[in-house]
Amino acid sequence: MKSVITLFTFLLLAPLTTLQAADATKPAVKVTQELLNSIHVTPKLIFDPMPAYGQKYLPFAMAASLEVTSKGRLWTCWAGGGDGPNGYLVGSYSDDQGKSWRDPVFVIDPQAQGLKMNTRIGAFWCDPKGRLWLFFHQSVGNFDGSFSNWFVRCDDPDSAKPVWSDPVYIGFGESINKPIVRKNGEWILPVSLHDRWNIDKPFADYYHELDAVRGSNVFVSDDEGASWRYRGGNIFKDSRFNEHSVVEIQDGTLWMLSRCKKEIAQSFSADGGKSWQPQSTAFPHVDSKAVIRRLQSGNLLVIRHGQDMTKATDGRKELTAFLSADDGKTWSSSLLLDERENVSYPDIAQAPNGDIYVHYDRDRYGAAEILFARFREEDVQAGKLISKDAALKNLVKSKLGMNHGAAGK
């Protein structure tokens, strides 16, 4: 009997022993100063990504951003390659209000430079002069504890051959949402720096000097983006990647919404973002991104999950629009943009003619879709589409490729 027990014990523990041996043979990441410095290596935009990325970018899609230029061109970017250390940013545009899209026109992929980094986060923004900015990050692994935040700018984004500036370093962190322009002319850029729990294991003992700013921060520019500097921020309890957006309300106060585990939390700043009040609940929400933006009319638009502002959904579904005419004190009826499961990461853009675009993803590792809704304020107020040309669930790309429109079928 003893020999049987011994044999059974051996067979039971053998797989564990094998796994331990396999783990022991895995090469540990060696954290060198060169590796830490690599996030500051100037990125390169790949302007001829096809056909090299022709099949590579298709199986995954995580929405990043959409913007509309002064002449109506739509620019979109999203993460390909997975939500992790192999991620890269893909960009494209449409000249027919999103009915058809060009194959990717640029990729930002640090690994193509031979660097052990990724770029998954990006935010497009058209400034008051009509120049198109793209803010994006670099990270070693999934999160190295610091990130580096960059921008490139295109002064004529409607050109047949858009020309982009060289990348410019801003500072630590990442920007997933658009800047705002305050009444006093300052530009405010949301900049996130993740909590220590999210840092990849090899970097667990690094960047303690940034612990005081691990949260939802704002950077400011008073020279129209030529330079940026840290101003202040808030560290939210139960934060989940921050993913905060900021608006200025009528009395000049800054209002910040930030993602937490069971809610979208809020904080206010009366001194331009230098100091922030203790957090409170803006509204219950599933563990996912929501976004707020002031529209041309002066009303505020929120995109969130769920058709009831007072309740959280049980998943990433029911992507919904709400309007407020009184700086968030009350909200309009809801416009359901996409009722399906696994829709997430909305971004808001508004065209010069007033059309509103909401950009998002669906089923990242399955259908791998990037989509957008187009509507107007009257559609939100009515709770249904009533405006001309309004349309929901418009496709940018799927696992099968870009939406080339009827001509491309």
Structure description:
- By secondary structure, the protein is mostly beta strands.
- The protein has one domain: Neuraminidase (6 Propeller), CATH 2.120.10.10.
- Helix content is 9%, strand content 38%.
- The longest helix has 24 residues.
- The termini are far apart.
Features:
single chain; 409 residues; mainly beta; Neuraminidase; five-stranded antiparallel sheet; 27 strands; globular; disordered N terminus
Topology:
Blueprint: H1 2-25, H2 33-37, E1 45-46, E2 62-68, E3 74-80, E4 88-94, E5 106-108, E6 117-118, E7 122-126, E8 132-140, E9 148-154, E10 168-171, E11 180-181, E12 187-192, E13 216-221, E14 229-234, E15 239-248, E16 254-260, E17 263-269, E18 280-284, E19 291-294, E20 300-305, E21 319-324, E22 335-338, E23 343-350, E24 356-362, E25 369-375, H3 377-382, E26 391-398, E27 401-402
Antiparallel strand pairs: 1-5, 2-3, 3-4, 4-5, 6-8, 7-8, 8-9, 9-10, 11-12, 12-13, 13-14, 15-16, 16-17, 17-18, 19-20, 20-21, 21-22, 23-24, 24-25, 25-26, 26-27
CATH fold assignment = Neuraminidase
Helix fraction, binned, reads under 10%
Beta-strand segment tally: 27
Count up the helices. 3
Q: State the shape.
A: globular
Summed up, the domain count is: 1
Strand neighbour order, sheet with most strands: 1-5-4-3-2
Biggest β-sheet, characterized?
A: 5 strands, antiparallel
Bin the strand percentage.
35-45%
Rg for CA atoms: 22 Å
Helices and strands, in N-to-C order?
A: HHEEEEEEEEEEEEEEEEEEEEEEEEEHEE
Poorly predicted tracts of residues: 1-26
* Global structural class: mainly beta
Cα distance, first to last residue? Answer: 71 Å
CATH architecture: 6 Propeller
CATH top level is: Mainly Beta
